[in-house]
Amino acid sequence: MSDQLERRLFDELEQLPLIDPHTHINPHAAASETLADILGYHYYTELAHSAGLSREQIEEPGLEPRELVGRLAPFLEQLDNTVQVSWLVEMCREFFGFEGDRIGADNWEAVYDAALRVMSADDWEESVLRASGLEQVFLTNDFDDPLEGFDTSRYVPCLRTDDLVFHLCRQATRDRFEQASGTAVSDAASLKSGLASLFEHFTSRGARACAISLPPDFTPAVPDVIAADAALSRVDGDTEWTCDEATAVSRLVFWSLSESCSDFGLPFDLMIGVNRQVYPDGVFQGQDLFDKRTSLKQYAELFNAFPGVTYPISVLSSTSNQELVSYSWIFPNVITNGHWWYSNIPAYIEADCRSRLQAVPRHKQIGYYSDMYKLEFALPKFRMYRRILARVLAADFVVGHGWSETRALDLGRQVLRGNVDSIFGGVS
Amino acid sequence: MSDQLERRLFDELEQLPLIDPHTHINPHAAASETLADILGYHYYTELAHSAGLSREQIEEPGLEPRELVGRLAPFLEQLDNTVQVSWLVEMCREFFGFEGDRIGADNWEAVYDAALRVMSADDWEESVLRASGLEQVFLTNDFDDPLEGFDTSRYVPCLRTDDLVFHLCRQATRDRFEQASGTAVSDAASLKSGLASLFEHFTSRGARACAISLPPDFTPAVPDVIAADAALSRVDGDTEWTCDEATAVSRLVFWSLSESCSDFGLPFDLMIGVNRQVYPDGVFQGQDLFDKRTSLKQYAELFNAFPGVTYPISVLSSTSNQELVSYSWIFPNVITNGHWWYSNIPAYIEADCRSRLQAVPRHKQIGYYSDMYKLEFALPKFRMYRRILARVLAADFVVGHGWSETRALDLGRQVLRGNVDSIFGGVS
Amino acid sequence: MSDQLERRLFDELEQLPLIDPHTHINPHAAASETLADILGYHYYTELAHSAGLSREQIEEPGLEPRELVGRLAPFLEQLDNTVQVSWLVEMCREFFGFEGDRIGADNWEAVYDAALRVMSADDWEESVLRASGLEQVFLTNDFDDPLEGFDTSRYVPCLRTDDLVFHLCRQATRDRFEQASGTAVSDAASLKSGLASLFEHFTSRGARACAISLPPDFTPAVPDVIAADAALSRVDGDTEWTCDEATAVSRLVFWSLSESCSDFGLPFDLMIGVNRQVYPDGVFQGQDLFDKRTSLKQYAELFNAFPGVTYPISVLSSTSNQELVSYSWIFPNVITNGHWWYSNIPAYIEADCRSRLQAVPRHKQIGYYSDMYKLEFALPKFRMYRRILARVLAADFVVGHGWSETRALDLGRQVLRGNVDSIFGGVS
C-alpha cells in the first residue's frame, strides 16, 4: 500500500511544470549534439578516470565525439552501480529509445547512433524541454557575459561572482571587470560603482539571482576597507597578495556584492564548502572536493547585516545539512536550496530532504536544481528527486501525520516549483 | 504486520507513567492559562518570525494574549509541515477537543476559546499531568532560586549554572551569588565555599541534578587557579575580562561545580554545543544556534578527573551523536541524554535513538526529556519520541534480532522511564 | 515481498567464501580455547567496564578464564541491546549449540562448558574457518615479526607501522627496527634503507598490505627532511622531541612508507581518526576514542604525490563517510574500506554502505573486514554486514533500479569478496 501511495504521489509530481533554478546551461547550445556532450559531463569523465581511464585518453586534443564515447563506455561497466550512470540509462531510455539496462563496450555504438539521430532533429532543444517539463532554466553567467542572443525569458541570467571575490588579483579579471562595468577597480568605491553597473546590466536582462561558490574556510565579515583599499592600490599585473590582503579583498568584494543584492533586490545564492583543485591531475571539473570542517556560524554576521537579502544556501557536505535546517528555521533570510554535487545522491538527499520538511517553514525551501550543463540531465535528476520527495511525503506526512494525499502533494509542489516562483520572482 | 507491531509497542509505551528529566517549567505557573502561553513558546514565535512576522509584532509591549495568537495564527499555515506545529495540533486535539487538522487564520479563535475554557478549570494542572502520564517534572532553577512555595516531590529542582560559569564578570551575578550563598566570591576558595552552600540548599530541597549549557568551543580543563584568582581579584562592577581571564574563570567555576557534584552526589547534565545570540535581532529565545565544529574529546580530561560524577550528555548537533554513543560506550560516567533542541526532530531522533540502542549499555541511556516551558507540551513531544522508539524497537529488535515484544518493551520502558529513576534517584 | 527478497539475497551472500582483509588474528593461536578468549575481547570488557565492572576485576593478574567469564557474565544483562552482545549470542548458537537468546549470570557456566568442549576438538581451528566460509585471513603484524611458523597462504601477513611513524623516539622501537632491518635509523637515508629490508622481508612472506592507524590531527605532507634528520640525529635513549620534531619525523616515516609501498607494489591501508588513550583508566584496548574534527582534505597532498599507491581508507567517524565516498569517487587511488570500530554498528554501516554503493565505482569498495582477534568473530560480524548489504541491494537496486536479483548479487559478491582479490592480489 505504501509502495502504491509513493507511486501515486510520484506520478502526480511528474506532471508539474518546472523551473530549474540553478544550471550551467549554455543558452547558445543548450541541448546535446552527440552522446559525447552527455558522457563528457564531469560526472562521467571523473568517474571513468577514478575507475582507471587516464586523463590523457579523456582529454586528448582534437578527439572526435564518437571516439571519446568509445573510450568512456567500457568504464561504465565498473560504474553501473552509481546513481550517475542510472541517470544516463534513464536518459537514453527516455529520449533515445534505448531498451536495455546497461550501456558499455558492447552496445555503446548503437546508443550513440540512436542519440545522434534524435539530437539531429531541428526541434531537439524544444523537444527535450517539453519532455522534461521545463518552463525556465536559470543560468550561471560570468560577470562580463553580454547576455545577448538568447531568450532570457526561457534562459534566465544569474550573475556568478566567484572570479570577482577570489581572483581579483589577476590582471585578466580586473580587465574583464573594467570592460564589463566601465570602471577600473582601484578601491572600495570604484568596486562598488562597477558592481552597480554589472547589476544594472544583469537585472535589465531579467537576472534572478547573484551566485557564488565558497571554500569551507571562507568567513564573510564586515570588510576592513582600509586594508582592502591598500591591497587594491598596489595591484600591478597578476599580483601575489599576502593571505591577509587576499582575505581583505575577498571580504570587501563579497560584502559589496551583498550590498548590491540588497540594492537591486536579488537573492544571493551561496554554495558553501568547495575546495578547488584538490586533485589537480584530475579531469576537467573533476578536481574539486571538500573539507567538512566548516560551519554556517561563519555566515552569522552576514545574515544579520543584510536582513533584506534572501540567501538560498547550498551546502556541499551533508554533515552541514542540520546547520542549514536550523539556520533556515531561525533566520528569516536563509533558505534551503537543493542538494548540491557530492550531496546529490539519494542516500544524502533523502536524509536532508526529510529533515528540511520536518523543521523549515514550507515556503523557505527550494527542493531541487539540476546543476546541469546540458538540458538532457534535468529529466533524470529531477526524477531522482521526485522519487525521494514522494517517499518522504508518503512516509512522514500521509502515513506519519495522517495527511491527505492532496495536502501532501501541495507541499511537494510547493518545494518543487512554487517556492522557485516566490523566492526568485517566478516566470517573467 | 510491521505497522501493527509498531502500533502495539507504541500503545504499550503510551501507558507508562513518566518522569520528565529536563524542563523549564515554572512550578508556580506550570500549566497554560491561554493559547498564548503555548503559541508564545519560542518554537512558534521564532518559526513565525522566520516565516515573516516581525519581532515587533510578536513582542509588542502589553500585547493581549488573544491578540498575540491572532497575529501568529496566519503564519502557522506556512509552518504546518513542521513537527513543531504537529505538536500544537496534537495538543489541541488531545486537550481542547479540536477536531481539525490545521490551525490558521480561519479557525484560531475557536481553538483559542476552547482552550481557554479547558484551561480555566481549577484542576487543569492536575488534569494535564494526569492525561500526560507525568509523575514528576524536573525543573531548571536559577542558582539563587529559593525553591519555595511548590511541591518539590512533584516539581524536582535542578541547579542551573550557566550564569556562574559564564557571567561572573557581571556585578549582578556576583551579587546574586553572595545573596544566595552568603559568600562573596573573590577567589577559588570563596567560590568553592559558596557553591557548597548552594548545593546544600538545593539538595536539601530534593534537587536531582546540576545542569549547564555550553558553547561549542568550551573545553573544560584543570583550572589555572592562579590566573582565575587574579581575574577574580580585579573585578569591579561589570568587568571586561580578557579572553584568557574569562577562560580561566569559566574553567575554575566549571571544575568547582564538578567537584561539588562529586561531593553532593549529583549528576551533572551537560548540554553541549549552543552558541548564544547568533541572531541578536531574533525573538526572545529564538536567537541561539550552533557550530558543529565541536568534539566530546574536549571533555575527556573532565570525564577522567571525575569518575564518581555521572554526566548525562545532550548534544545540540546530530553530527555529535556518534561521539556521544562512543564516549558512553567507553566512559562509565557518560550517559546519553535525550534529543536536544535542533536535534529534537524525528529525522535526527530516529537516527540517534537507533545508534544508541545498538551500542550503549541499556541502563546508560535517558531516552527523552521534553525541555518544555508549559506542561501541555509533554504529551505531544513524548508521543513523538514514543512513536520513533516503537519503530526502532520493532525493526531492530523484534524483527531484526527476533526478540519477543515483551523483551523489546522492557528495553523501551527502561530508556523511557527506568533509567531516569536509576540515574537521578527516582521518585522521592 | 521485500522481506523475502532480502532473505533470498542474504542466503546467497552467505554462501560466498570469504577473505577477511583486516584482522588482529594471532596465527599461532587463531581460534579460542575458552569462552574467556571471546569475552576477553575489548568489545566486551570495555562495555562491562562502562556498565560498572571495575578494571581491577577484569584485569586481575593470574585470573582464571572461567573466573573472568563469571565476572563479566552478569554485566551482559545490561548490554543485551548492543550489537556486540548479539554477535556473542549468534556465535554461541552457531558454534556451541546454545539455544537460548540471552547469556548472563544464570546460564554462563553451561555456555562456558559447552564452548570448552567444542573448542577442545583438535580441528577446532579448521572447523571454525570452514563454518565461517573463511579462505584467507589477513593479519596485523608488527614490523619486526619474523612471520615464521604459520601458513602464510592462509594467514596473510600485513605490515603494521604505527610504531615506526609515532614511536621512533623510543629506544625500544629503534632497537627493534635495527634488529629487524639490520639498519640503525639515524637519518632519512638509513630509514629508507631499513624500510626496504622490512618490505623485502614482508613481501617475500606474501604480505598483501602495509597498514597504519592515524590520529584525527595527523596531516601527511612532503617531509621536511632537514628537520627530521636533525631530530633523528639527536636521539639518545627514550627521547622527548618537541612537537615540531615529532611531526617532522612522523611525516618523514609516513612518506617513506608510502614510497616503499610504491616500490613494492603494496596497498597502504589507512585507518584514519583514532585518538589513543583518551580514557587511560579504561581496560586494555578500551581507552581509545576519537575527535570528529578531521578531514580527508588533510590527505590530498599524499594522494596526489603517490598516484601509483592504492590507499584503502577506513574512517572512524561516520561523519567522515561522505568525504570518503567523494574522495574515492574522484581519486583513482582511494578505496573505501569496511566499517571500522565505532562505525561498525548497523545504524552507521547501513547509511555508509548505501552511499558508497550509490556513488563509488563498484571495483573500488572493500565491503567489510572483521577486525577480529579470534576466528570465531568472523561469522557473526560478516553476517551482520551481509544482512545490511542484502537490505541495501534489495531496496536500492532490485526495487529502486529494477535490477534482477542476479545482477544485484553480482554487485554484492564483488564488494564482499571480488574486490579483496583484485585490490590486494587475491588467494596466492
Please name the defining characteristics of this protein:
homotrimer; 428 residues; alpha/beta; six-stranded parallel sheet; globular
Describe this structure in words.
With 428 residues, chain A is an alpha/beta fold. In chain A, 50% of the residues lie in helices and 9% in strands. Chain A has 18 helices and 11 strands. Chain A has a 6-stranded parallel β-sheet. A 3-stranded parallel β-sheet of chain A has the order 1-2-3. In chain A, helix 16 (346-359) links the parallel strand 10 (334-337) and strand 11. Chain A starts with a helix and ends with a helix. The mean pLDDT of chain A is 97. At the A-B interface, helix 14, helix 15, helix 16 and helix 17 of A face helix 3, helix 6, strand 8 and helix 16 of B.
Task: Give a nutshell description of this structure.
Chain A is of the alpha/beta class. Chain A contains 18 helices and eleven strands.
Counting helices, strands and paired strands, the structural category of chain A is alpha/beta
Overall spatial form of chain A:
globular
Strands of chain A, count: 11
Percentage beta strand of chain A: 5-15%
Number of helices in the DSSP assignment of chain A:
18
Q: Largest protein interface? A: A-B, 39 and 38 residues
- Distance between the amino and carboxyl termini of chain A: 41 Å
> Which stretches of chain A of 5+ consecutive residues score pLDDT under 50?
none
Largest sheet of chain A: 6 strands, parallel
Instruction: Give the integer mean of the pLDDT values of chain A.
Output: 97
What would you report as the Rg of chain A, rounded to the nearest angstrom? 22 Å
Helix content of chain A: 40-55%
Oligomer: homotrimer
Output the strand order for the largest sheet of chain A.
4-5-6-9-10-11
The secondary-structure element order of chain A is: HEHHHHHHHEEEHHHEHHEEEHEHEHEHH
